[in-house]
Protein backbone atom coordinates (compact mmCIF):
# COMPACT_ATOMS: atom_id res chain seq x y z
CA UNK A 1 0.00 0.00 0.00
CA UNK A 2 1.39 3.44 -0.95
CA UNK A 3 1.38 4.86 2.56
CA UNK A 4 3.94 2.21 3.61
CA UNK A 5 6.82 2.41 1.10
CA UNK A 6 9.15 0.55 3.41
CA UNK A 7 8.87 -1.36 6.66
CA UNK A 8 8.41 0.75 9.75
CA UNK A 9 7.27 4.00 8.15
CA UNK A 10 3.88 5.46 7.25
CA UNK A 11 3.84 8.51 4.99
CA UNK A 12 1.62 11.58 4.83
CA UNK A 13 -0.90 12.32 2.07
CA UNK A 14 -0.01 15.83 0.89
CA UNK A 15 -1.89 17.38 -2.04
CA UNK A 16 -2.28 14.06 -3.83
CA UNK A 17 1.18 12.64 -3.09
CA UNK A 18 2.55 10.38 -0.35
CA UNK A 19 5.56 12.04 1.25
CA UNK A 20 7.98 11.44 4.09
CA UNK A 21 8.43 13.81 7.00
CA UNK A 22 10.15 17.15 6.68
CA UNK A 23 13.87 16.49 6.99
CA UNK A 24 13.14 12.79 7.46
CA UNK A 25 11.46 13.44 10.83
CA UNK A 26 9.29 10.65 12.24
CA UNK A 27 6.89 10.08 15.11
CA UNK A 28 7.02 6.74 16.91
CA UNK A 29 3.70 4.92 17.30
CA UNK A 30 3.27 2.31 20.03
CA UNK A 31 0.73 -0.32 20.99
CA UNK A 32 -0.83 0.89 24.27
CA UNK A 33 -1.93 -2.64 25.09
CA UNK A 34 1.66 -3.92 25.19
CA UNK A 35 3.78 -0.72 25.28
CA UNK A 36 5.70 -2.09 22.30
CA UNK A 37 6.85 0.01 19.35
CA UNK A 38 4.47 -0.50 16.44
CA UNK A 39 5.86 1.63 13.62
CA UNK A 40 6.91 5.15 12.71
CA UNK A 41 4.89 7.83 10.96
CA UNK A 42 6.28 10.66 8.90
CA UNK A 43 6.26 13.92 10.86
CA UNK A 44 5.06 16.86 8.80
CA UNK A 45 6.41 20.34 9.36
CA UNK A 46 6.28 23.77 7.77
CA UNK A 47 7.22 22.65 4.24
CA UNK A 48 4.64 19.86 4.07
CA UNK A 49 1.96 22.14 5.45
CA UNK A 50 2.77 24.81 2.87
CA UNK A 51 2.40 22.25 0.05
CA UNK A 52 -0.90 21.01 1.49
CA UNK A 53 -2.34 24.52 1.81
CA UNK A 54 -1.15 25.52 -1.66
CA UNK A 55 -2.70 22.38 -3.13
CA UNK A 56 -5.96 22.96 -1.27
CA UNK A 57 -6.19 26.58 -2.41
CA UNK A 58 -5.38 25.71 -6.03
CA UNK A 59 -7.91 22.89 -6.06
CA UNK A 60 -10.61 25.14 -4.65
CA UNK A 61 -9.88 28.09 -6.93
CA UNK A 62 -10.00 25.81 -9.96
CA UNK A 63 -13.34 24.47 -8.82
CA UNK A 64 -12.30 20.82 -8.85
CA UNK A 65 -15.04 20.04 -6.32
CA UNK A 66 -17.08 23.22 -5.99
CA UNK A 67 -17.88 23.37 -9.72
CA UNK A 68 -18.30 19.63 -10.11
CA UNK A 69 -21.95 18.82 -10.88
CA UNK A 70 -23.62 17.78 -7.59
CA UNK A 71 -24.55 14.37 -8.95
CA UNK A 72 -20.88 13.70 -9.76
CA UNK A 73 -19.84 14.90 -6.30
CA UNK A 74 -22.39 12.50 -4.82
CA UNK A 75 -20.94 9.66 -6.88
CA UNK A 76 -17.45 10.52 -5.63
CA UNK A 77 -18.60 10.37 -2.01
CA UNK A 78 -20.16 6.97 -2.61
CA UNK A 79 -16.92 5.71 -4.21
CA UNK A 80 -15.05 6.84 -1.11
CA UNK A 81 -17.51 4.93 1.08
CA UNK A 82 -16.95 1.81 -1.02
CA UNK A 83 -13.17 2.12 -0.78
CA UNK A 84 -13.34 2.57 2.99
CA UNK A 85 -15.44 -0.56 3.39
CA UNK A 86 -12.94 -2.49 1.29
CA UNK A 87 -10.17 -1.87 3.84
CA UNK A 88 -12.26 -1.90 7.04
CA UNK A 89 -11.15 -5.32 8.24
CA UNK A 90 -7.38 -4.97 7.84
CA UNK A 91 -7.29 -1.25 8.59
CA UNK A 92 -9.37 -1.84 11.71
CA UNK A 93 -6.74 -4.24 13.03
CA UNK A 94 -4.07 -1.56 12.62
CA UNK A 95 -6.27 1.03 14.34
CA UNK A 96 -6.90 -1.44 17.15
CA UNK A 97 -3.17 -1.89 17.69
CA UNK A 98 -2.29 1.81 17.65
CA UNK A 99 -5.25 3.13 19.67
CA UNK A 100 -5.81 0.30 22.12
CA UNK A 101 -9.55 0.02 21.43
CA UNK A 102 -11.24 -3.28 20.68
CA UNK A 103 -10.89 -4.82 17.25
CA UNK A 104 -14.66 -4.75 16.90
CA UNK A 105 -14.80 -1.03 17.69
CA UNK A 106 -11.85 -0.24 15.42
CA UNK A 107 -13.35 -2.03 12.45
CA UNK A 108 -16.65 -0.36 13.30
CA UNK A 109 -14.95 3.02 13.01
CA UNK A 110 -14.17 2.39 9.37
CA UNK A 111 -17.73 1.22 8.77
CA UNK A 112 -18.97 4.41 10.46
CA UNK A 113 -16.60 6.48 8.32
CA UNK A 114 -18.06 4.85 5.21
CA UNK A 115 -21.55 5.67 6.43
CA UNK A 116 -20.64 9.35 6.80
CA UNK A 117 -19.56 9.55 3.18
CA UNK A 118 -22.66 7.67 2.05
CA UNK A 119 -24.97 9.88 4.13
CA UNK A 120 -23.52 13.20 3.03
CA UNK A 121 -23.02 12.00 -0.53
CA UNK A 122 -26.77 11.58 -0.66
CA UNK A 123 -27.14 15.27 0.20
CA UNK A 124 -24.75 16.64 -2.44
CA UNK A 125 -27.56 17.52 -4.84
CA UNK A 126 -29.88 18.79 -2.12
CA UNK A 127 -27.99 21.89 -0.93
CA UNK A 128 -30.72 24.21 -2.10
CA UNK A 129 -31.19 27.95 -1.76
CA UNK A 130 -34.52 29.75 -1.59
CA UNK A 131 -36.43 32.55 -3.26
CA UNK A 132 -37.39 35.56 -1.14
CA UNK A 133 -40.41 37.66 -2.25
CA UNK A 134 -39.64 41.40 -2.40
CA UNK A 135 -42.41 42.46 -4.72
CA UNK A 136 -42.79 42.68 -8.52
CA UNK A 137 -39.73 44.89 -9.06
CA UNK A 138 -37.22 42.41 -7.63
CA UNK A 139 -36.00 38.87 -7.89
CA UNK A 140 -34.17 37.82 -4.73
CA UNK A 141 -32.64 34.45 -3.92
CA UNK A 142 -29.99 32.79 -1.77
CA UNK A 143 -27.26 30.35 -2.70
CA UNK A 144 -24.95 28.28 -0.51
CA UNK A 145 -21.23 28.46 -1.25
CA UNK A 146 -18.36 26.42 0.23
CA UNK A 147 -15.97 28.29 2.49
CA UNK A 148 -12.83 27.25 0.62
CA UNK A 149 -10.06 25.56 2.63
CA UNK A 150 -11.29 23.76 5.73
CA UNK A 151 -8.62 23.01 8.34
CA UNK A 152 -9.59 20.04 10.48
CA UNK A 153 -7.78 18.89 13.63
CA UNK A 154 -8.71 15.37 14.69
CA UNK A 155 -8.38 13.84 18.21
CA UNK A 156 -6.88 10.48 19.07
CA UNK A 157 -9.89 8.81 20.72
CA UNK A 158 -11.87 8.16 17.49
CA UNK A 159 -9.51 9.39 14.76
CA UNK A 160 -11.10 7.69 11.76
CA UNK A 161 -14.76 8.26 12.64
CA UNK A 162 -14.32 11.87 13.77
CA UNK A 163 -12.21 12.69 10.73
CA UNK A 164 -14.86 11.28 8.39
CA UNK A 165 -17.54 13.14 10.34
CA UNK A 166 -16.01 16.44 9.21
CA UNK A 167 -14.33 15.43 5.96
CA UNK A 168 -17.49 14.04 4.35
CA UNK A 169 -19.73 17.12 4.67
CA UNK A 170 -16.84 19.47 3.87
CA UNK A 171 -16.02 17.67 0.61
CA UNK A 172 -19.69 17.18 -0.22
CA UNK A 173 -20.19 20.94 0.00
CA UNK A 174 -17.23 21.58 -2.34
CA UNK A 175 -14.50 22.59 0.11
CA UNK A 176 -10.88 21.50 0.09
CA UNK A 177 -9.62 19.98 3.34
CA UNK A 178 -6.33 19.87 5.21
CA UNK A 179 -6.53 17.39 8.07
CA UNK A 180 -4.09 17.25 10.97
CA UNK A 181 -4.08 13.69 12.33
CA UNK A 182 -3.27 12.81 15.97
CA UNK A 183 0.34 11.91 16.63
CA UNK A 184 -0.59 9.11 19.06
CA UNK A 185 -2.54 7.05 16.49
CA UNK A 186 -2.18 8.43 12.94
CA UNK A 187 -2.09 5.18 10.97
CA UNK A 188 -5.80 4.52 10.59
CA UNK A 189 -6.33 8.03 9.33
CA UNK A 190 -3.53 7.59 6.80
CA UNK A 191 -5.34 4.50 5.53
CA UNK A 192 -8.48 6.60 5.24
CA UNK A 193 -6.45 8.89 2.99
CA UNK A 194 -5.57 5.93 0.78
CA UNK A 195 -9.29 5.28 0.32
CA UNK A 196 -9.78 8.88 -0.79
CA UNK A 197 -6.93 8.51 -3.27
CA UNK A 198 -8.31 5.31 -4.81
CA UNK A 199 -11.78 6.84 -5.08
CA UNK A 200 -10.37 9.66 -7.23
CA UNK A 201 -10.52 12.73 -4.99
CA UNK A 202 -9.17 15.61 -7.11
CA UNK A 203 -5.52 16.47 -6.61
CA UNK A 204 -5.03 18.91 -3.76
CA UNK A 205 -8.62 18.68 -2.52
CA UNK A 206 -7.60 16.58 0.48
CA UNK A 207 -4.42 16.33 2.53
CA UNK A 208 -3.84 14.34 5.72
CA UNK A 209 -0.75 15.21 7.72
CA UNK A 210 0.63 13.91 11.00
CA UNK A 211 2.68 16.31 13.07
CA UNK A 212 3.19 17.70 16.55
CA UNK A 213 0.13 19.65 17.63
CA UNK A 214 2.01 22.56 19.17
CA UNK A 215 3.88 23.02 15.88
CA UNK A 216 1.88 21.74 12.92
CA UNK A 217 -1.55 22.31 14.43
CA UNK A 218 -0.67 25.82 15.56
CA UNK A 219 0.71 26.72 12.12
CA UNK A 220 -2.36 25.32 10.41
CA UNK A 221 -4.97 27.28 12.38
CA UNK A 222 -2.94 30.49 12.20
CA UNK A 223 -2.58 30.37 8.41
CA UNK A 224 -4.23 33.08 6.34
CA UNK A 225 -4.86 30.37 3.70
CA UNK A 226 -7.44 28.71 5.96
CA UNK A 227 -11.08 29.72 5.50
CA UNK A 228 -12.59 27.54 8.23
CA UNK A 229 -11.40 25.64 11.31
CA UNK A 230 -12.98 22.44 12.63
CA UNK A 231 -11.62 21.14 15.92
CA UNK A 232 -12.47 18.29 18.27
CA UNK A 233 -10.48 18.04 21.48
CA UNK A 234 -9.80 19.56 24.86
CA UNK A 235 -11.00 22.93 26.09
CA UNK A 236 -7.49 24.41 26.59
CA UNK A 237 -6.42 23.48 23.06
CA UNK A 238 -9.72 24.76 21.69
CA UNK A 239 -9.22 28.07 23.45
CA UNK A 240 -5.74 28.37 21.96
CA UNK A 241 -7.13 27.69 18.50
CA UNK A 242 -9.88 30.25 18.97
CA UNK A 243 -7.33 32.90 19.92
CA UNK A 244 -5.51 32.21 16.65
CA UNK A 245 -8.81 32.22 14.75
CA UNK A 246 -9.65 35.60 16.21
CA UNK A 247 -6.55 37.10 14.60
CA UNK A 248 -7.65 36.02 11.13
CA UNK A 249 -11.41 36.16 11.89
CA UNK A 250 -11.77 32.55 10.75
CA UNK A 251 -15.13 30.86 11.39
CA UNK A 252 -14.78 27.77 13.54
CA UNK A 253 -16.66 24.67 14.66
CA UNK A 254 -15.66 23.56 18.16
CA UNK A 255 -16.50 20.20 19.72
CA UNK A 256 -14.78 20.27 23.09
CA UNK A 257 -14.98 18.36 26.35
CA UNK A 258 -17.81 17.13 28.51
CA UNK A 259 -18.76 16.15 32.04
CA UNK A 260 -22.05 14.60 31.11
CA UNK A 261 -24.63 13.40 33.61
CA UNK A 262 -27.24 10.68 33.50
CA UNK A 263 -30.20 11.12 35.84
CA UNK A 264 -31.68 7.87 37.20
CA UNK A 265 -35.07 8.40 38.80
CA UNK A 266 -36.59 6.00 41.31
CA UNK A 267 -38.58 4.19 38.59
CA UNK A 268 -35.60 3.59 36.30
CA UNK A 269 -35.15 0.16 34.75
CA UNK A 270 -31.97 -0.85 36.57
CA UNK A 271 -30.99 -3.56 34.09
CA UNK A 272 -31.22 -1.04 31.26
CA UNK A 273 -29.37 1.53 33.36
CA UNK A 274 -26.48 -0.86 34.01
CA UNK A 275 -26.25 -1.68 30.31
CA UNK A 276 -25.91 2.04 29.64
CA UNK A 277 -23.32 2.42 32.42
CA UNK A 278 -21.23 -0.30 30.79
CA UNK A 279 -21.14 1.45 27.42
CA UNK A 280 -21.44 4.97 28.78
CA UNK A 281 -18.27 5.04 30.88
CA UNK A 282 -16.28 1.91 29.97
CA UNK A 283 -16.49 1.93 26.16
CA UNK A 284 -13.07 2.90 24.78
CA UNK A 285 -11.83 2.98 28.39
CA UNK A 286 -13.93 6.08 29.06
CA UNK A 287 -11.96 8.11 26.51
CA UNK A 288 -15.12 9.59 25.03
CA UNK A 289 -16.13 13.27 25.08
CA UNK A 290 -19.76 12.27 25.64
CA UNK A 291 -19.03 9.60 28.27
CA UNK A 292 -21.42 9.07 31.19
CA UNK A 293 -18.91 10.44 33.67
CA UNK A 294 -21.55 11.40 36.27
CA UNK A 295 -24.49 9.27 37.37
CA UNK A 296 -27.10 11.13 39.42
CA UNK A 297 -29.30 8.66 41.31
CA UNK A 298 -32.48 9.19 43.32
CA UNK A 299 -31.74 8.48 46.95
CA UNK A 300 -34.45 5.80 47.11
CA UNK A 301 -32.39 3.54 44.83
CA UNK A 302 -28.92 5.02 45.44
CA UNK A 303 -27.36 2.19 47.47
CA UNK A 304 -28.74 -0.42 45.09
CA UNK A 305 -27.32 1.37 42.06
CA UNK A 306 -23.89 1.78 43.67
CA UNK A 307 -23.84 -1.91 44.54
CA UNK A 308 -24.81 -2.92 41.03
CA UNK A 309 -22.31 -0.51 39.43
CA UNK A 310 -19.51 -1.96 41.55
CA UNK A 311 -20.50 -5.53 40.66
CA UNK A 312 -20.63 -4.56 36.97
CA UNK A 313 -17.23 -2.90 37.12
CA UNK A 314 -15.55 -5.75 38.95
CA UNK A 315 -16.96 -8.26 36.48
CA UNK A 316 -15.59 -6.60 33.34
CA UNK A 317 -13.06 -8.45 31.24
CA UNK A 318 -9.85 -6.48 30.74
CA UNK A 319 -7.28 -7.02 28.01
CA UNK A 320 -5.75 -6.15 24.67
CA UNK A 321 -8.15 -4.79 22.09
CA UNK A 322 -7.51 -7.69 19.70
CA UNK A 323 -9.34 -9.94 22.19
CA UNK A 324 -12.43 -7.68 22.27
CA UNK A 325 -12.59 -7.34 26.08
CA UNK A 326 -14.99 -5.08 27.97
CA UNK A 327 -12.20 -2.71 29.01
CA UNK A 328 -9.16 -1.76 26.95
CA UNK A 329 -6.04 0.29 27.80
CA UNK A 330 -5.76 4.04 27.85
CA UNK A 331 -3.97 5.58 24.89
CA UNK A 332 -0.64 6.39 26.60
CA UNK A 333 1.35 6.33 29.80
CA UNK A 334 0.78 10.04 30.20
CA UNK A 335 -2.98 9.60 29.97
CA UNK A 336 -2.90 6.73 32.47
CA UNK A 337 -0.88 8.80 34.96
CA UNK A 338 -3.28 11.71 34.57
CA UNK A 339 -6.39 9.60 35.19
CA UNK A 340 -4.88 7.75 38.15
CA UNK A 341 -3.75 11.00 39.79
CA UNK A 342 -7.23 12.52 39.42
CA UNK A 343 -8.77 9.56 41.23
CA UNK A 344 -6.13 9.49 43.95
CA UNK A 345 -6.59 13.22 44.53
CA UNK A 346 -10.33 12.63 44.92
CA UNK A 347 -9.62 9.88 47.46
CA UNK A 348 -7.32 12.21 49.41
CA UNK A 349 -10.19 14.70 49.50
CA UNK A 350 -12.38 12.11 51.22
CA UNK A 351 -14.38 10.77 48.27
CA UNK A 352 -15.11 7.05 48.63
CA UNK A 353 -13.51 4.77 46.07
CA UNK A 354 -16.10 1.99 45.86
CA UNK A 355 -13.91 -0.03 43.47
CA UNK A 356 -10.84 0.37 41.30
CA UNK A 357 -8.94 3.61 41.73
CA UNK A 358 -5.51 2.63 40.41
CA UNK A 359 -3.64 1.26 37.43
CA UNK A 360 -3.48 -2.47 36.85
CA UNK A 361 -0.24 -4.42 37.07
CA UNK A 362 1.46 -5.76 33.96
CA UNK A 363 2.27 -4.37 30.51
CA UNK A 364 -0.07 -1.90 28.85
CA UNK A 365 -1.70 1.30 30.07
CA UNK A 366 -4.63 -0.21 31.95
CA UNK A 367 -6.69 1.67 34.54
CA UNK A 368 -8.96 -0.38 36.77
CA UNK A 369 -12.66 0.33 36.19
CA UNK A 370 -13.44 2.81 38.93
CA UNK A 371 -16.59 3.78 40.81
CA UNK A 372 -16.59 6.78 43.14
CA UNK A 373 -19.53 7.07 45.55
CA UNK A 374 -21.04 9.90 47.61
CA UNK A 375 -19.19 12.32 45.36
CA UNK A 376 -19.40 15.99 46.29
CA UNK A 377 -20.95 17.70 43.23
CA UNK A 378 -18.62 20.67 43.72
CA UNK A 379 -15.45 18.55 43.87
CA UNK A 380 -12.85 18.69 41.15
CA UNK A 381 -13.51 15.08 40.12
CA UNK A 382 -17.20 15.94 39.57
CA UNK A 383 -16.52 19.18 37.72
CA UNK A 384 -13.60 18.40 35.42
CA UNK A 385 -13.27 15.93 32.58
CA UNK A 386 -11.22 12.85 33.53
CA UNK A 387 -11.31 11.02 30.17
CA UNK A 388 -10.95 7.57 31.66
CA UNK A 389 -13.00 4.67 33.08
CA UNK A 390 -14.11 6.60 36.15
CA UNK A 391 -17.76 6.91 37.20
CA UNK A 392 -18.91 9.47 39.79
CA UNK A 393 -22.21 8.51 41.47
CA UNK A 394 -24.09 11.35 43.18
CA UNK A 395 -27.40 11.15 45.09
CA UNK A 396 -30.36 13.52 44.69
CA UNK A 397 -33.76 13.89 46.35
CA UNK A 398 -35.93 15.83 43.91
CA UNK A 399 -36.36 16.41 40.20
CA UNK A 400 -35.38 20.05 40.55
CA UNK A 401 -32.20 19.09 42.41
CA UNK A 402 -31.30 16.52 39.76
CA UNK A 403 -31.64 19.08 36.97
CA UNK A 404 -29.57 21.61 38.92
CA UNK A 405 -26.83 19.03 39.50
CA UNK A 406 -26.82 17.91 35.86
CA UNK A 407 -26.51 21.53 34.72
CA UNK A 408 -24.04 22.35 37.46
CA UNK A 409 -20.80 22.21 35.47
CA UNK A 410 -19.25 24.45 32.83
CA UNK A 411 -19.95 21.81 30.17
CA UNK A 412 -23.06 20.96 28.19
CA UNK A 413 -22.36 18.23 25.66
CA UNK A 414 -24.86 15.42 26.33
CA UNK A 415 -27.10 14.25 29.17
CA UNK A 416 -29.34 11.31 29.96
CA UNK A 417 -32.68 10.61 31.65
CA UNK A 418 -33.68 7.18 32.92
CA UNK A 419 -37.35 6.88 33.88
CA UNK A 420 -40.52 5.05 32.92
CA UNK A 421 -42.51 8.29 33.16
CA UNK A 422 -42.72 9.71 29.63
CA UNK A 423 -44.00 13.09 30.83
CA UNK A 424 -41.08 13.45 33.21
CA UNK A 425 -38.64 12.38 30.50
CA UNK A 426 -39.86 15.17 28.20
CA UNK A 427 -40.01 17.71 31.00
CA UNK A 428 -36.50 17.03 32.30
CA UNK A 429 -34.94 16.75 28.83
CA UNK A 430 -36.27 20.20 27.99
CA UNK A 431 -34.52 21.70 31.03
CA UNK A 432 -31.14 20.04 30.61
CA UNK A 433 -28.36 22.22 29.20
CA UNK A 434 -26.95 19.83 26.63
CA UNK A 435 -26.74 19.51 22.88
CA UNK A 436 -28.15 15.97 22.96
CA UNK A 437 -30.26 14.15 25.56
CA UNK A 438 -30.50 10.37 25.72
CA UNK A 439 -33.61 8.83 27.28
CA UNK A 440 -33.26 5.29 28.69
CA UNK A 441 -30.27 4.46 26.47
CA UNK A 442 -26.90 6.18 26.55
CA UNK A 443 -25.49 6.87 23.07
CA UNK A 444 -28.91 6.55 21.46
CA UNK A 445 -28.95 8.22 18.05
CA UNK A 446 -26.68 7.93 15.05
CA UNK A 447 -25.10 9.67 12.09
CA UNK A 448 -28.33 11.49 11.25
CA UNK A 449 -28.69 13.05 14.73
CA UNK A 450 -26.98 16.45 15.30
CA UNK A 451 -24.18 16.44 17.87
CA UNK A 452 -22.53 19.35 19.66
CA UNK A 453 -22.50 21.20 22.92
CA UNK A 454 -23.18 24.29 24.96
CA UNK A 455 -20.94 26.19 27.35
CA UNK A 456 -17.36 24.92 27.46
CA UNK A 457 -18.37 21.94 25.34
CA UNK A 458 -18.17 24.18 22.29
CA UNK A 459 -20.48 25.31 19.52
CA UNK A 460 -21.56 24.32 16.06
CA UNK A 461 -23.00 20.93 15.18
CA UNK A 462 -21.56 17.79 13.67
CA UNK A 463 -23.57 14.90 12.22
CA UNK A 464 -26.96 15.09 10.60
CA UNK A 465 -28.32 17.52 8.06
CA UNK A 466 -27.47 20.50 10.30
CA UNK A 467 -23.77 19.74 10.09
CA UNK A 468 -23.73 20.17 6.33
CA UNK A 469 -24.57 23.84 6.76
CA UNK A 470 -21.45 24.33 8.89
CA UNK A 471 -19.49 23.92 5.65
CA UNK A 472 -21.29 26.48 3.49
CA UNK A 473 -22.11 30.16 3.82
CA UNK A 474 -25.18 31.93 2.58
CA UNK A 475 -25.01 34.48 -0.22
CA UNK A 476 -28.02 36.62 -1.04
CA UNK A 477 -28.52 37.94 -4.58
CA UNK A 478 -31.03 40.76 -5.11
CA UNK A 479 -31.91 41.78 -8.67
CA UNK A 480 -33.75 45.03 -9.43
CA UNK A 481 -35.91 44.53 -12.50
CA UNK A 482 -36.75 48.23 -13.00
CA UNK A 483 -33.67 50.41 -12.68
CA UNK A 484 -33.25 54.18 -12.60
CA UNK A 485 -36.38 55.13 -10.69
CA UNK A 486 -34.76 55.51 -7.28
CA UNK A 487 -36.69 52.57 -5.87
CA UNK A 488 -33.58 50.82 -4.58
CA UNK A 489 -32.46 53.86 -2.59
CA UNK A 490 -35.93 54.39 -1.18
CA UNK A 491 -36.19 50.73 -0.17
CA UNK A 492 -32.76 50.78 1.43
CA UNK A 493 -33.70 53.84 3.43
CA UNK A 494 -36.94 52.25 4.59
CA UNK A 495 -35.16 49.00 5.59
CA UNK A 496 -32.26 50.73 7.31
CA UNK A 497 -29.69 48.98 5.09
Key traits:
497 residues, alpha/beta, Aldehyde Dehydrogenase, Chain A, domain 1, Aldehyde Dehydrogenase, Chain A, domain 2, 2 domains, 7-stranded mixed β-sheet, 6-stranded mixed β-sheet
How would a crystallographer describe the biggest sheet? 7 strands, mixed
The low-pLDDT segments are none
> What is the CATH T-level topology of the largest domain?
Aldehyde Dehydrogenase, Chain A, domain 1
**Share in β-strands:** 15-25%
Mean pLDDT metric: 95
Please identify the top-level CATH class of the largest domain.
Alpha Beta
Structural class: alpha/beta
Radius of gyration: 24 Å
Strand line-up of the largest beta sheet: 15-16-17-14-13-18-19
Question: Can you walk me through this structure?
Answer:
By secondary structure, this protein is of the alpha/beta class. The protein folds into two domains: 270 residues, Aldehyde Dehydrogenase, Chain A, domain 1; 180 residues, 3-Layer(aba) Sandwich (Aldehyde Dehydrogenase, Chain A, domain 2). The protein contains 15 helices and 21 strands. The strands form five sheets. It has a seven-stranded mixed β-sheet, sandwiched between helices. Strands 10-9-8-11-12-20 form a six-stranded mixed β-sheet, sandwiched between helices. Strands 1-5-4 form a three-stranded mixed β-sheet, with helices on one face. Helix 8 crosses helix 9. It is globular. The mean pLDDT is 95.
Amino acid sequence: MTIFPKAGLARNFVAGRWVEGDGGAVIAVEDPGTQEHLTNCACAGEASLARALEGARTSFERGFLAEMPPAQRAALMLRIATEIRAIARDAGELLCRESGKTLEAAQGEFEEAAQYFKYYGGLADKIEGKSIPLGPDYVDYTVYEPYGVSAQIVPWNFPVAIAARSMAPALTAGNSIVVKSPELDPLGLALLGSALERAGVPEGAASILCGIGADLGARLVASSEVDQIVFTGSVPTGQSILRAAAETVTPSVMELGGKSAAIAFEDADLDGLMASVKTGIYFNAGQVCSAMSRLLVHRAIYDQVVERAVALSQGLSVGHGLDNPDLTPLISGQQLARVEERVQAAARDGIRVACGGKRLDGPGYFMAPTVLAEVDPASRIAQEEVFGPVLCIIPFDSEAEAIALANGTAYGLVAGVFTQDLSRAHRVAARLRAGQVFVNEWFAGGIATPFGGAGRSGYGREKGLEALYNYVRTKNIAIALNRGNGASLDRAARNGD
